[in-house]
Write a structure and sequence with these properties.
Largest sheet: none
Number of domains: 1
CATH class: Mainly Alpha
Helix content: 55-70%
Number of helices: 5
Order of helices and strands: HHHHH
Number of strands: 0
Length: about 90
């Protein structure tokens, strides 16, 4: 039997049943973590090099690279972006 295909809302966390407020934060955290992992990989950095650049312990970089989203607040991820010279913009949609 084929599973029905359901169109996404555009936010997987809403689709998984989270309320809109929590889903928005989770989506932002997922995006920032993905961007930070891509940055580390694109620069060919070791976890120790990335830790120095981010100003955190190597174990925190390991958590980031392994996608342990529960270990990072939105505020911490924004701070890590700032430490590598990036600015985070939040766009509001109606």
């Amino acid at each position: 039997m084929k599973e029905p295909v359901i169109k996404s809302s555009g936010n997987v966390f809403i689709d998984l049943g989270f309320d809109e407020a929590e889903a928005a934060v989770l989506q932002m955290r997922a995006k920032l973590m993905s961007d930070l992992r891509a940055f580390v990989m694109s620069k060919g950095m070791t976890q120790m090099e990335a830790a120095k650049r981010f100003g955190v312990a190597q174990s925190r970089v390991s958590d980031l690279m392994r996608g342990k989203w529960d270990k990072f607040s939105l505020e911490m991820l924004i701070s890590l972006e700032a430490r590598i010279g990036r600015k985070v913009k939040i766009e509001l949609a109606a």
